[in-house]
Amino acid sequence: MNNATRDTFNFPRDNSLCFGNIKTFYLTTGDFDMIIVVEVPDDITLAKLVLSIGSRGTVRTKTLRAYTESEYRQIIDAVPRPVTE
Q1: Per-residue pLDDT tens for 32-48?
Q2: Angle between helices 11-19 and 43-54 (to 10 degrees)
Q3: Which of 7, 27, 53, 64 has its CA 20 to 30 A from that of 77?
């Protein structure tokens, strides 16, 4: 493992306080080497976090927006129902 890779694995300690909260961190096999679940206050903060990680040049990122049960129920309730005759 080279130093750049080691630095990448130090991410949770480097960034946990300046961008948000790290909820979970997984070392994985398959298409992704790791999955980090973070909680940030808004999309702008998430963009800063992703750019900060990407600027190291050693990783690629993929972001997913997750919804809580309460949030997805609000989304589902807001979807118009089909009109029935």
Answers
A1: 888 888 888 888 888 88
A2: 150
A3: 64
